[in-house]
Every structure is written in C-alpha cells, then in structure tokens.
Structure prediction request, 490 residues.
Amino acid sequence: MDFLAGKRLAALAVALMALAAAAAARVAVSGDPWTEPASVASAVGPSAVDHLVRARAAERRGDVTEALARYREAVRSNPRLVDRKSSEYLGSDFEGKLRSWVAGLREKKIPAGPTALPDASYLFRRMYGGCG
Amino acid sequence: MIRKWFLYPESPGALALLGGLFAAVAVGLTALGNPASSGLCASCFLVNVAGALHLHPRATQSYLRPELLGIVLGAFFAAFSSREFRVRGGGGSSGVLHFVGGAFILLGCEVFIGCPIKALLRTAGGGGAGLVGLLGLAGGVAFATLFLRDGYGFRPKAAVPEAAGLILPGAAFLLLLAVSMGSDLFAAAGFGGGAHHAPFAVSAAAGIFFGAAGQRSRFCVTGSIKSAVLARDFREGAGTVTFLVVALLLNVLLGSFLPSVALEPGAHTDLYWAFLAMAMAGFGAILIAGCPFRQLVLAASGDMDAAAAVAGMLLAASLSVAFNIGSSPAGVTDAGKIAVLAGWVFFLALGIGCRKAA
Prediction:
C-alpha cells in the first residue's frame, strides 16, 4: 500500500470528505433527520392499546401477517410491552407464541405474507435486547 | 514469575489469558442481569451514566453503571501502584481535537449499537450485524494505518500539574460512594436497558477488574488490530482473539448463541450503516489513540487528552439521545447517518491535518 501515501493519500482523503459531506447533505434534505419515523407515526396514529386490540383480533382470525404487523406497531409505540421489568409486559405466553411464530415462519411452516418474518424478527430483537 | 506475568503481561500467553478472563466476566455479567451482549460496553455504559447524571431525559437509558466507575478506579489504582500514573497532555489544540474525536467515536458506536468490545460480544453471540460491525472496525483501523505510515501524529505529550489527573478518578470514587450509600440524586430506569443490570457489588467489582487488567495489559480491540496491521505484532491480538473465542464458547454453553442477522438481540439490520459506523469509529480510535474503553483507562492513568476524549464521549452520549442519533432495533435514524458521515469528514480532515506534526 506504499503507493497510497503523501499527495495521493491526501487526494483520496479530500475526495472521501467531499463524498461524505455530499451524502450527509443529501440525507439532511431528504427527510427530517432529528425525528425518528416511528415516533412520528405513533404520535399521530392509533395508540398501542388500539394496535394490541387489532393484533389480537387478527390472531383470532388466524391472520398471522396482520397480527404481527399490529404487534410491531404496538411495541413501537410502547416498548414496555416486551420488557419483563415492566408491569405492561405482554407475558410469557406472548413470548412463547412469538418464538413459535419465528420458528414457523423461518421454516415456512406458517403461511404468511412477506412482512410477517421481518415483523416477528423486530419483536424478537426488541424483546431480548439491548441497551436502548 | 507468576507475579511478573500478571503485573507486566507482555507475552501472548499472558495477554490471551487476560482476554479470556475479560470475556468470562463480561458474559457472566450478562448472565447476572446486564442486557444481551452488554457485559462490557463502554459506549452503552456512558449513555446510561449520562442519563443517570440527568444529561439526557430518556429514563430507559439511565443507570449509574458501577462497571464504568469501577473501570476508572481500577485503572487508576493499577497505574498508581505500578508507578505509571503520569499526568500529561499534548497541549495546544490536542485536547479539543480529542474531545471532538471522542464525541464522534461515541456517536459511531451508538449508530452501530455498541463499542468495539460489544462488537466482539455481539459476534460471539452469533450476531450477523455484530460481525459486519467488527469487519468495519478492522477496515477503519487498517485505513488509519495509512495515515500513521505517512507521518500522522500529535506533538509529544508534556507533564501537566498532577491534580488535573486526579479529577476523573476522584469523581468516579465520589459517585460510587454516593450510589453505595443509597443516594437518590441520580436518575434510574424502571424498565428498558437501564433497568437490566447485574447486582451492584458484582458490577463494581467487575469494573475494577476490567480497569486494572485493562491498564496492565493495554487491552484495546482497535489497538490490537493496529499492531497486527502496522507492525505484524500479534501479541495484543492474542488477547482479542481469545476474548472472542471464550465469549463464543460460553454463549454456546449457556444457550445464548443464536447465529442470525434478523434475530440478533437489541440490534438493527442495516448492515451497510453498521459497517460504515464502526469503520468510522475504528478509524477515529486510531487517530486519537484508543477505543472508548481504552480512553477511559488512559484518562484514569493521567492522560489529559484521553480525559478530553472521555468528556467528549459523555457529551455525545447525551446528544445521541437528545437528537435521536442512536439506533434502535427499528433501524438507523437519519440523524445517525449524518453523524457517521460528519465523523468521517472530521477524522479525514484530522488525518490530513496532523500528518506532519509528529
């Protein structure tokens, strides 16, 4: 890598700086960078309780895709739902169901739409992690 | 012989043993209550401490992590007892550059969700995004070595009044004392990441071990990669690799090993940004001489530039929450992307600007 030294290294660094600055400007003008899309949705859309009611209704109908989408929105609005330390925790029954949904969807044993596995995975990641 | 092994660990065997112990304690803390893959994460702990000190308002990320305070105290005592506590600083603009550099490294870690040590722990848990972040970190460090070869460096450090070096260890001691006496001055989470923690005494003891062993062994993930790339010196790498292997084996034994991208606990699946954020953190860590954990250890050993970096990291920890820069399992925010790109601009400018200063 000796050829990448002196003026060549400086030129590469300046080019990368320009690229990074342009990309940052593009991200800044393409949206509202300081607000998380999820928090906007939860501020103006249905509440976590509404989502939970619809999720359970969809579950009873056997519509796993809709149920998981609604559970995802409920958890986005209120992360306490998947936190064992919270009194609002959905409980070990839900945890067991989620695990079986994830397993069934990964093995394609549960018929569902393309959003079901990403939604189940999101709920799983939320439930078992992390610092946030 | 054994005393020398532990007090002056320089051989690959001694460094590997310490790396393994680090991993065992870190995985143990997770088993005792810390969040997944967060037995040792300097950046997560800094965000929690910033919240506890009311520097940001998010209660779920507020807890005065005794591990962090223990790291500072352990490193201070180890440096003091081995006569390596020397208060020094680069002078001039060095402190400011370390402050801003420390802030950007922390923001990179928050976009990835974890410091370089957590990248090891996430990889050891089977996390695909953790592995991608680790590869990004290695790439950033390798890129930084081009600048080191080209004459990058700050001016040699000079001695400064000793009292300055006692501020950080003194603050850590007072905070630890206040918490152990049951002070309710600090914010604490009732749920969320901040509420998940190992017992206080165990965490404090583990932190003191991390700090003391880190000071004696110079444990640093980015530093070990740099030594391997730049000098073909793999001794430090032995500690890092052993850390990864021991953490992986323990995760398999405890049933917490799950190889997956989509199901990695607490992670997001934006692999491109995980790579880019950790590459920026790795690049920057080499330019300011240490990852977040190493900066804490150096600051406790009297390095005032590292103390400036720690102050920058603490500020960035609060900004990360206030401006939604930190990622979540939902993904990377636009503010996080801008922070990573701004970090690249800053460190590239630093890399060019300080090439002839050595």
Notes: Helices of chain A lie at 6-30, 37-44, 48-61, 64-77, 92-106, 116-128. The two ends of chain A are 40 Å apart (CA to CA). Chain A touches chain B through 45 residues (CB under 8 Å). Chain A has six helices and no strands.
